[in-house]
Amino acid sequence: MKKSIYLLFVAVVTLCLAACGNGNSDSESQSDKKESNEGKPSLVVTTTFLKDMVSVLEEGVDGFDTHLIIPAGEDPHVYEPKASDLDSLKNADVVLYHGLDFEGRMADVLSSGVSVTEKFNESNLEEMEEDEGIVVDPHFWFDLDLYQQAMERVKETLIENNPDGKEQYEANFDAYVEELKELDSYIKSRIDEIPEKSRVLVTPHDAFNYFSRAYGMEVFAPQGVSTDSEVSNNQIQQTADKIVENNIKAIFIETTTNPDRMKRLQEVVKAQGGEVELVSDGNELLSDSLAPVGESGDTFLTMYRHNIDVIVDHLK
Known about the structure:
- With 316 residues, the chain is of the alpha/beta class.
- The protein has helices at 2-37, 48-57, 83-91, 144-161, 166-191, 209-215, 233-246, 260-271, 300-315; strands at 42-45, 65-68, 94-97, 114-115, 127-130, 133-136, 200-202, 218-220, 250-252, 277-279.
- A hairpin with a 2-residue loop joins strand 5 and strand 6.
- Residues 1-37 have low confidence and may be disordered.
């Protein structure tokens, strides 16, 4: 009996020591985790456009550890978040995203973040007819005024979460506004090189309506606002008719869309007795993503200049 009591006592003591040991281990683990997370707060952005905005505003501040979800060259309309993306979003101190359903398949996991378009006046937004009805066109960045408004929302968010950097954020923003004004002048001067009757831009999907509104160029696309929508034979035919009727010189591929649709469009034009150049081979337009780092168009300013140079050089 005494031996049984003794063995029971030993077992209880052993369990207690193990529990205490585990408690210390957990405490140390939490301490290590806290220590590893000390330093810059984590900022998660969904797209290359937002990453570029943050990079510009963070110049000379470096207040955040920034992580990009959708890689350069990927299509945000149809991007499927990976488990690692969801972990990044869950653990982020700050999340920035476009909104307007641009990150179509990620909407449910972004609602707690900051949408850079949330303060846009609805009267400034373009609407398009899609399969599901009337939708808002999310490609606001081709309107430089709206892009500036979005960037101002990013600036406000950075200041809110890193007030020590306020002065530098403000200075960086003001300097960038001047660069946007220079870009606007450049775009207008280049478009002036295109004869008015030739100012028709044909692209795979409706990503350039804000550009059309801002700079007076007609835009036609066989696909809708989202690259997730289907393209009918009727849409291809209607676009081909427009090309033949207006003797349009060139049609353009985008980096984030399937080039086969535009090749098919070129073939339909040819079958109708017309001829149109399909612009590709490094001259694709950048619409839903900036270029990968190190390539032409890897910043917003160089992306827009790349696009306008390609468009004008092939239509003038």
